[in-house]
From TrEMBL:
Superkingdom of origin organism: Bacteria
Keywords, in A-Z order: Phosphoprotein
Domain Response regulatory: 14-128
Residues where 4-aspartylphosphate is found: 63
NCBIfam families membership: ActR_PrrA_rreg
UniProt xrefs under Gene3D superfamilies: 3.40.50.2300, Homeodomain-like
SMART domains: REC (SM00448)
PANTHER family for the chain: RESPONSE REGULATORY DOMAIN-CONTAINING PROTEIN, STRESS RESPONSE REGULATOR PROTEIN 1
Protein name from the UniProt record: Two-component system response regulator
The keyword Phosphoprotein is assigned to this record: yes
Amino acid sequence: MLLDTIVSALVDRSLLLLDDDGPLRNRLARALASRGFEVKTAAGVEEAMAITRTQPPAFAVLDLRLEDGSGLTLVEELHLARPDARVVMLTGYGNIASAVAAVKAGAIDYLSKPADADDVVKALLAQSDHLPDPPANPMSADRVRWEHIQRVFELCGHNVSETARRLNMHRRTLQRILAKRAPR
């Protein structure tokens, strides 16, 4: 059964890429197309739903949080239209609760942004009984922390005081972190 699903997925290389970050979506779409996928992109949930209803893809790479909703709703819709679809969730908000929700909804993997195209392809094509290889170049703990701070800062409208309150840190400490360059 699983082998049949993988074989049919290898024949049908249609892929839906849903992300509201335009540059990331375009870059990842080109990278996946160069790896043999037939990529259709969507910037919002409604646009992706329309694609799913007319031509359900064999693969999907979906952002978790979007301006007009959640990629989780699309996972359920996609599995109704095509039960053998393989879905990978991408998110800048990596936490255990959202990862569990994504897997319960039917996603096969959950990757944090920025995700490398090779990691996405490995996740899409991985067999369910085989654990994926660890990433070749994982982000350092300092870089993950910096990315999280930047994301919260952006969500708070670049308000340093509000960001410091939400991150439970002193405002001056946050200002020093924001003034520095991103760690490697």
